Automatic annotation (TrEMBL), chains A, B:
Keyword Ribosomal protein assigned: no
InterPro entries, per the entry: aa-tRNA-synth_II, aa-tRNA-synth_II/BPL/LPL, Anticodon-bd, Anticodon-bd_dom_sf, His-tRNA-ligase, HisRS-like_core, HisRS/HisZ, HisRS_anticodon
Swiss-Prot/TrEMBL catalytic activity: tRNA(His) + L-histidine + ATP = L-histidyl-tRNA(His) + AMP + diphosphate + H(+)
EC main group: ligase
EC number: 6.1.1.21
Protein known as: Histidine--tRNA ligase
GO cellular component labels: cytoplasm
Quaternary assembly: Homodimer.
Length: 439, 439
């Protein structure tokens, strides 16, 4: 015992002590409930997969940021980089799944990123995806669930920004970018909110676009206003781009369907510069931003019709979104949007001395059987003051004292920890009395 | 899309499709509820730790079975081997935690074991531990929670086997084993149920014990009967071993305290051969076995007063147990001990055609707002038969049909999928009617 080992945790990884767990569990359960209310089914996949399962799928970033290693059996393995690629693998392995397949998955993923505020190497994603439907109704359902989830945990100010990959490609064509340049153009214009119009312009010119073309593109991505206004404006500017016009009409259908859900349509905006980092999107893309605090996007997703089918060998259209648990919790905490639920027990049962411990156990066992969260003191018996300090540090609101006096009369003393008030109660009235304190 | 990638999963790792998830989630939530009812608080730690955090702690097995690798920053890291060592690290990093600290942790751990039936490389542990108490009341509380958890999920036949490390060492001394031989002797006698008395005898003789000593030891570990009988018998045989007598009295105290909980004392038996594989136990040890199906132990734990303090640099007595989620689920499934909760939505809303989709969305959104789990059809509209087949494959019990006929009268058709019966209902009565079907 003399050799103390220095306890240390890896950078970018976190412990969640009980108080933060209360909020995490609350948010996760709220999301699960909403996902299930929409008829999404839970799916879980391994933390570790063949590295090649992830390679060449989601993005070039994934290649460098994945935790990869060779296991004892000589296999190249990797920690789950996201929850989307495993979904694709599962669909590929189960050709008989009823389609559309609506699944949710709430679990950690790992990325060897540079740790910084709000960015961790182990973080949780809450994913919902609709596999096997290319209907705009599926896109609308995903957009509706985003707002349901955020509202349910207390978000008030947020904007769901929407764009379409085919609007992006039409814009790139209009600006004279070659198909090879297109991906780089998307990346450049996606940085509009970070580097401003001038910054994007510079990047476009570096990519080889003419100053004229760059200006046309900047004009396109700078269109502002409500969804209708922006879409009509885009329609005029892209009138000779049939794919672009089709994408605009698709977004109109999606928004039109969305308006039948119980959501606030003012939260949904068309943002022509939105590209989303990942290369696999093929249709609508969307992300949710809040202005305060500045945490980046709290959800991201869209339609990707090519990825899921890679393992099945046929096209399987899919749309979905990921809600970022840690960022959502960061926002809730920073804006004080919710009081975290109390994590402690409802009642603390003291142990007067060794002779009374059997009675204390019986009292605790009885309260628990009635569904009351009860902590029994398990340290050395005696010193009521020490036990009260302990209960108070744990934030337990009610304390039961059952000494020889009380027990001789089949009574207990119930102490309100906030006011310090105490009263005697017959033992048999205790559970009902405690329950009444909450109602 | 022509290059189909072969979807494959690593051996010893599993996907959980929605139907198995329903049972897993039910068991996890039941355990969480019971842990919280006992006043245990949730704690979560990273999946990845410095490899040295685990090394030299739990067992020699851990060294070889841990998934270890060097990360991109040159750190030697390892996937979490158990939930106990991370608890010790957290306690070492937070000297101010109120003690006793009662925490629970339900999460996966990873071990590069040979995969076989009931043994996986990624599996979930449900751990409860009481840190900072050397009172027998803490041991009793852990023993009570085991039986509460197993009963709550439907277990009927199980035995919680109990022993004490100091009874084991007293027995080893009585049999003439040297302190160096002791650990090997424990391992040998722990295999009684696997290799039988003759097998253990052979192993003891190979370890260097005399045939006479081996026979005495076999006689000791073979004592059978209820807890009282076995303890009294042991007391006579170990009368000249003060440490052994003290351990026997400790077990008596624990069982005596335990009898004040709402548990069936007949499930708790003293098993003198029980050693538990891990080397870190110092006091009472226990595990739960079921005879059918033969899955090995479904819980394991005990008192370990030296491990947690390693990171704090002082002794921190701790007792706890781990419930093995997968084995518990294996037993529930094999014995048919519970009907897994239905995973599907309660109601399925069909989409008659594109002109009716807005109404279908409104119906679904309204039901969801009332808390009813509702799946909206998101495939290509039309073909009612196809949609009914889909709803039936998902196991959804009620289907709503809202075609132009129904909608013109502000009505819907509600179909009972089991009987095939259909009836018309006014739209505004729908949510209450559906709720009434469950009550």
């Amino acid at each position: 015992m003399s050799d103390r080992l220095n306890p240390q945790r890896l950078r970018g990884f976190r412990d969640f002590l009980p108080e933060s767990m209360a909020l995490r569990k609350y948010v996760i359960r709220t999301f699960e409930e909403i996902f299930e209310r929409y008829g999404f089914l839970p799916l879980e996949t391994p933390s570790l997969e063949y590295a090649e399962t992830f390679e060449g799928k989601s993005s070039t970033e994934a290649e460098t940021l994945m935790y990869k290693f060779v296991d004892a059996g000589g296999r190249r393995v990797g920690l789950r980089y996201d929850l989307t690629v495993p979904l694709a693998r599962v669909v590929g392995m189960h050709p008989d799944l009823p389609m559309p397949f609506k699944r949710y998955h709430i679990a950690p993923v790992w990325r060897a990123e540079r740790p910084q505020k709000g960015r961790y190497r182990e973080f949780w994603q809450c994913d919902v995806d609709i596999v096997g439907s290319d209907e705009p109704a599926a896109d609308a359902e995903i957009l509706a669930i985003i707002s349901d989830c955020l509202s349910a945990v207390g978000f008030k100010e947020y904007r769901v920004l929407i764009n379409h990959r085919k609007i992006l490609s039409a814009m790139a064509r209009v600006a004279g970018a070659s198909p090879e340049q297109a991906v780089h153009v998307y990346r450049a214009i996606d940085r509009l909110s970070k580097v401003g119009a001038d910054g994007v312009r510079q990047e476009l010119i570096q990519l080889g676009l003419s100053p004229d073309s760059s200006d046309r593109l900047i004009a396109l991505i700078n269109i502002e206003g409500d969804a209708d206004t922006v879409l009509s404006h885009l329609e005029r500017l892209l009138e000779d781009q049939p794919e672009g016009i089709q994408a605009i009409n698709e977004l109109r259908s999606i928004l039109n369907l969305l308006s039948n859900y119980n959501v606030n349509m003012n939260s949904y905006l068309i943002q022509p510069s939105l590209a989303r980092g990942l290369d696999y999107y093929t249709g609508a893309v969307f992300e949710t931003v809040v202005d305060e605090p500045k945490v980046g996007s709290v959800t991201g997703g869209g339609r990707y019709d090519e990825l899921v089918g890679i393992f099945a060998g046929k096209k399987i259209p899919t749309v979905g979104t990921s809600l970022g648990l840690e960022r959502i919790i960061d926002v809730l905490e920073e804006l004080g949007l919710m009081t975290p639920p109390r994590v402690s027990a409802d009642v603390f049962v003291t142990v007067f001395d060794t002779s009374c411990i059997a009675s204390s156990i019986q009292i605790a066992a009885n309260l628990r059987r009635k569904g009351i969260k009860t902590e029994l003191y398990l340290g050395k018996p005696g010193s009521l003051r020490k036990q009260l300090t302990y209960a108070s540090r744990l934030g337990i609101p009610w304390v039961i004292i059952a000494g020889p006096d009380e027990l001789a009369n089949n009574e207990v003393t119930l102490r309100d920890m906030q006011s310090g008030e105490q009263k005697r109660l017959p033992l048999h009235e205790l559970p009902e009395h405690i329950k009444s304190l909450w109602s």
